[in-house]
Amino acid sequence: MDKKINVLLVEDEMELAVSTIRFLKENNFNCTHKSTIKLALKEIKNNSFHAALLDLGLPDGDGLSLIKEIKNKNQETGVIIVSAKDALNKKVEALELGADDYLTKPFFFPELNARIKSLVRRLNMEENKKIVLNELTLFPEEMKVLVHNKVVDLTSKEFSLLLYFISNQNRVLSKTILGEFMSSNYEDYGFSDDLVYTHIKNLKKKLASSDCPEYIKNVYGIGYKFLVD
Amino acid sequence: MKLITKSSLTFISASVLFFLVGSIIMYFSVRTIFSSNLNDTLLEKKTNLVKQIEPDNVERFYSNDVFVNKINSDIPSSFSDTVLIESGKYILYRKIDFSYFTSDQYYKISVLEPQKKTDILVSKIVIMNVGLAFIFFLILFFVNRHSVNNTLKIFYRTISKLEQFNLNNNDELHLDSAQLFEIKKMNSVIQKMADTIRKDFELQKEYTENVSHELQTPLAVINSKVDELMQSDNLTKQQMEQLAILMETTNRLSKINQALIFLTKIDNRFYTKGSTFSVNQLLKEQLDLFEESIQQKNIKVTLNLLDTTHIYMDKYLAETMINNLVRNAISHNNDIKEINISIENNCFIISNSGDKLTFPSDKILDRFSKSTTNKKSLGIGLSVVKSICELYHFELQYHYDGMHHFSVNFKV
Predict the structure, then answer these.
(1) Does the beta-carbon distance from A186 to B319 stay under 8 Å?
(2) Does the ipTM exceed 0.90?
(3) Crossing angle for the helix pair B381-392 and B237-267, to the nearest 10 degrees
(4) CA B306 to CA B286: how far, in whole Å?
(5) What is the β-pairing status of strands A29-34 and A5-10?
(6) What pLDDT digit, counting tens, does each position of B330-366 carry?
(7) SS3 state of residue A219
(8) C-alpha span between A197 and B340 (Å, rounded)
């Protein structure tokens, strides 16, 4: 996992692009940014990417048209659509054209981060499918986690939470972000604060009982941080 | 009052007045004509009489229809009506009075002519005329009624089309073409108006959706900046907390926005894929999603699923409807912590313990009505349910009797 992940960002909203680039770089991604379809097409021809983040409403067309080009060039490039339109038919259209994921604006960076990582893991078959962090070993496909090579029994939500933390290590994750992550499609706003607290409490307890150091730190009044030195 | 009744009534009252006044005028005018005829006859009789009369035989002329009376002075010749009683009956006569003068005496001579015959004639003529006019009136009445009715038919068709016209149905208004100028004019004005309203409505809907979509990107920018700031190491605790609130509020704004887009989509009939499924099954799936929240809050859920109601509608909307109702029952629960759900007689009823509303209960289904105690609520979930129910003509009702009861009747 030492190899840097190359990401192509196609986004015309400059401020959002600037923040996204900074965020991706901080998280050890290589990021190339283009703001139009024309420029993006040129970039796709010349370079190969692990993942592409495509905005739908671009000045010179719809980002959907890039999906085919990207996949033709390299089937293993993961395509994530980032759109303000949360329409089912748009999603279906994008996925049918070959997109791998669909993220609705406004999104949270940790969510984007987790999605890119998960996508790259899925698409790069030859890469080992486990994530190792000190004494922790995670197998995302099987939702299995080992601490000191011993299985820790986690519920699926606790496992997703741990994976999310590891994907966004050393970042402050606010309760809002974690709540959004924990809520399913339906179970939306205003419901998940207590659940987040309970799940994290349980996760911490289970990890602690397996002699795992306390990575998940409480950032008082704001949220949590998965701290790895 | 219907137009046809109104016009008939006016017609009838005008006709009755006309008949009444008309027949009286006619009676008297015909009578005047006849009495002037009688006058001529009387004048003729007078001339004959005067020819025959001699000073010594004046009294001899006295008969049934000629009266001779002595008088003291001269009188002018005059016509008048008089009534004689003959064998107990009053008989009307026309009479001419004139004076005759012998050397020593004035005589008043009256010649009479019965009016009985002319009276009968007058009545007959008047009756005949009135009868004719009545038949004419009847024909006119029915012809008029028929033509008004015919005209109104087009008018009523327009009205009934307007009644069925629903902006939300996306169908245009098509009015019949009419021949009558006024109806044609009315139809064209209405048509123009309806088209304008429809266009404005479409534009407004489009506008709402576009604005909401346009808001998402700036919100994404805010989110990204706040998240960036939050990672800074040199922030005070207070600054961090403020950032957390900023992020929370932005998220809330985005949720409201998404909910509004969703509501607009329901109203725009975006979700039209229908399928048949069991409400029980749907409820169980949705309850599973809330299992953790229910456990967390320690709420006791009682199910009373009596029949297996199947409904035909868009699956996503059905899920959303049940989901919002269940979520509402969970989040607005109080210390009693109870939820009862029953399905019977095509009716889905969900009841939850909860405090009395802090706003009027008829506002509960309106957008953004929410109690002052629940800060986290967006106040939009129930209006989504309302919109979905309206779309499928389900009956959604609410009442409170210590518990909040929401019922959806699928077959009204």
Answers:
(1) yes
(2) no
(3) 10
(4) 18
(5) parallel
(6) 888 888 889 999 998 889 999 999 888 888 877 888 8
(7) strand
(8) 27
Query: What is the rounded distance in angstroms from the CA atom of residue A12 to the CA atom of residue A40?
Result: 11
* CA of B316 vs chain A CAs: smallest distance (Å): 10
Structure tokens at B61: 């002329």
To test the contact with chain B by mutation, choose from A85, A174, A219 the residue with the greatest count of B C-beta atoms within 10 A, namely A174
Beta-carbon separation of B297 and A194 below 8 A = yes
**B397 or A88, which is more confident:** B397
A202 touching chain B per CB within 8 A: no
Instruction: Cite the DSSP H helix spans in B53-115.
Output: none
Amino acid (one-letter) located at B379: G
Task: State the Cα–Cα distance between residues A104 and B220, nearest whole angstrom.
Answer: 9
Find out whether B240 and B230 touch, Cβ atoms under 8 Å: yes
Distance of residue A85 Cα from the nearest chain B Cα, in angstroms: 6
Place of tokens 């998960």: A118
Amino acid occupying residue A141: E
Pairwise CA distance, residues B246 & A43, whole Å: 37
Please tell me chain B's helix, strand, coil percentages from 3-state DSSP, rounded to the nearest 5: 60, 20, 25
pLDDT tens profile B143-171: 988 988 888 888 888 888 888 887 766 67
* Contact check, Cβ <8 Å, B251/A189: yes
Please, which contacts does B103-108 make with residues 24 or more away whose CB atoms are closer than 8 Å? Answer: B103/B55, B105/B70, B106/B70, B106/B71, B106/B72, B106/B73, B106/B74, B106/B75, B107/B58, B107/B68, B107/B69, B107/B70, B107/B71, B108/B68, B108/B69, B108/B70, B108/B71, B108/B75
For residue B409 the two structure tokens come to 């009747």
For residue range A108-149, list pLDDT tens digits in order: 899 999 999 888 888 776 556 788 888 888 888 888 888 888
**B38-42, B211-215, B299-303: range with lowest mean pLDDT:** B211-215
Residues in chain A: 229
**Cβ partners under 8 Å of residue B214, min gap 6:** A84
